[in-house]
Amino acid sequence: MKQTRGWIVRLFTLQISLQLTAGFISGCANTTNPTIEPTAETTVNYQPVPTPANPLPTLLPPTPATTLIPGDNDPGQEVASGIMVLAMGDGRYQHLFAYHPVYLPLTRITTGDFDFNDPAINPDGTQIAYCDTSSGKWNVAILNLVDNSMFQVTNSEAYACAPSWSPDGQWLAYESVSDGKLDIFLQSVSDFSSPAVPLTDGLGNNFDPAWAPGGREIAFVSDRNGHQEIWLANLDASTDRLTTLKSSDEADYTHPRWSSDGTTLLWQKTSDMAVIEKLDRSVEGSRPVTIGTGSMPTWGTNNQGVVAVLQTPNGYELVSYRKDPTRALFPSIQLPDRVTALTWQSGRFVENMGKYLDTIDLPAPAALMEPEVVDTTTGLLDRVYLEGVDAPEPYLSDSVNSNFASMRSVLENELGWDFLGILENASLSLPNEPQAESNLNWLYTGRAIAVNLAPLDAGWLVVSREDFNGRTYWRVWLKCREQDGTCGAPIKMSVWDFNSRSNGDNAAFENGGRNSAPPGGYWLDFTAFAMRFGWDRIPAESNWRSYFPSTQLNLFVHSDGLSWREAMSERFPTETIESLWP
Question: In degrees rounded to 5, what are phi and psi of residue 164?
């Protein structure tokens, strides 16, 4: 940790006499979206803002932000300023990591046998708010970097997450389940005994708050109209507090993030793919401008650029865009595990994080599973019987059977029911006749499983559609047995309704279904869970809209980087493979 702090101290001492001028991303061509015209959507009378004894934030004069300035041999100023904090998988759990693409490798900053998510750094850079499951359920907590202490803010009996700081650091906005739906609440951090103030109205799900630097607005996401939309809450209004800012029948809008001066909003737009847009609200009639591809965008380096996560079908990359969107702050970086949230901050936070890293000594995380030990001295690998698994042929290759057993055990423990105890298929016996070259079924390799789809009809499994480079993939969600917040989390993305294609909806019929609002309750992301054990999803075939088996939504492959023929060669002689797939 001494080396870690060294670069932070070295750079921080260079910054005092100079600040970067805050900049904004220059846009690509304007989209065809209509001019934004916020309109009041509700006439609900809201709870008045608290009295002066417990006021909403009184804005203080802004403190000039200090900025890391690189030396002569360092990369550009935009890259050098600040540090990222990410929520990322690590072993069996998800933790918070500090990261800089040049100076600081991915460095875990939390520990414990539970999950962390949604880091948010307070304005003076001394604290990180986040949510974790240390209490058995998701609750908001604060890590103090100065004295290395942690404090639980909420005591939710269900779920509380996604904190966002007020500009004066005296309040937190966060999302929480109330009456079965997500709503946004405000909690004083100067008086934890005061009750949380409800901000939204219980219509639909309202989540992912982002407090504006001006202090009197909060952007958030709402799905009350059937699609995810960006909304604004006016803290000074007693009626008609909530208005829409951006919506569309053709796309979902999520992850709003303000620029430091409050004039510009970033968000994620998802239709055929996930892209990042910005809206300059200081110019009347301005339209959103597309920055580039990616999800979960955040302003980086004093608004000189944007950092985001680029999801691939079975992986995650860190991408960035400068003021000129044709240039990157740094090259795309492959991430070792799933990232669910990230933020970037400069100023005193850099020095405080350096001191914090210098004092902690975290143990290595527990291994997700025991490494697979395969005896290769006998040549070809055998199929191994799967104990307690109901499948037509309950076997897998000796190269992955132990991995599957570990995944099944951990999943049952977390989910509360044995989803992998019944499989539609595991290893398949070889066919009797030569096959078409296109029929390279991974089930023949013994390195694939087709999970049981009966829970889909029973309402215990739902899927979300995700498109990458023109191909369709599916994210599989499993319903937790105990719906008390001790397992999983609410789904915050649209789910795919296959049944709508047979309900007289012509558009749904042609498209193989349609997006719909997520179901309530608590769900586990099985696609992400399986990916951490090395089981990847595969794309749907081109005719999936008219032929359901072609969705291939239940097929997961543990390839270990092998091609299909290489995987087949583990179990079968070359002449056998060539005779069936010439």
Answer: -140, 130
Averaged over 8-33, what is the pLDDT?
32
Q: How far apart are CA 183 and CA 203, in angstroms?
A: 9
Q: Phi/psi class of residue 70: alpha, beta or left (left: φ > 0; alpha: ψ in -120 to 50)? A: beta
What pLDDT is attached to residue 439? Answer: 81
Q: Identify residue 579 by its one-letter amino acid code.
A: S
pLDDT digits (tens, 9 = 90+) for 292-301: 999 999 998 7
How does DSSP assign 349-379, residue by residue?
A: HHHHHHHHHHH--PPPPPPSSPPP----TTS
Q: Are strands 274-280 and 264-270 parallel, antiparallel or unpaired?
A: antiparallel
Write down the H helix ranges in 282-428: 348-359, 401-415
Kindly list the strands in the beta sheet with 217-222, ordered across the sheet, starting from the edge strand earlier in the chain: 206-211, 217-222, 229-234, 242-246
pLDDT at 24: 26
Q: Which residues pair with 307 in a beta bridge?
A: 298, 320
* Least trusted range by pLDDT, from 65-74, 239-248, 456-465: 65-74
**DSSP secondary structure, 46-101, as one string:** PPPPPPTTSPSPPPPPPPPPP-----TTS--HHHHS-EEEEEEEETTEEEEEEEET
CA 552 to chain centre: 23
Q: What is the Cβ-side half-sphere exposure of residue 371, based on CA atoms within 13 angstroms?
A: 3
pLDDT digits (tens, 9 = 90+) for 51-77: 333 344 433 333 333 333 233 334 444
Domains of the chain: 2-45+67-359 (2.120.10.30), 383-580 (no CATH)
CA distance linking residue 201 with residue 252, whole number of Å: 20
Tell me the sheet residues that pair with 352.
Answer: none
Q: What single DSSP character describes residue 558?
A: -
Q: Which pLDDT does position 25 carry in this prediction?
A: 29
Confidence of residue 328 (pLDDT cuts 50, 70, 90): confident
End-to-end, the C-alpha distance of the chain in Å comes to 56
pTM of the model: 0.86
DSSP secondary structure of 169-192? SSEEEEEEEETTEEEEEEEESS-T
| Three-state DSSP class for residue 34 | coil
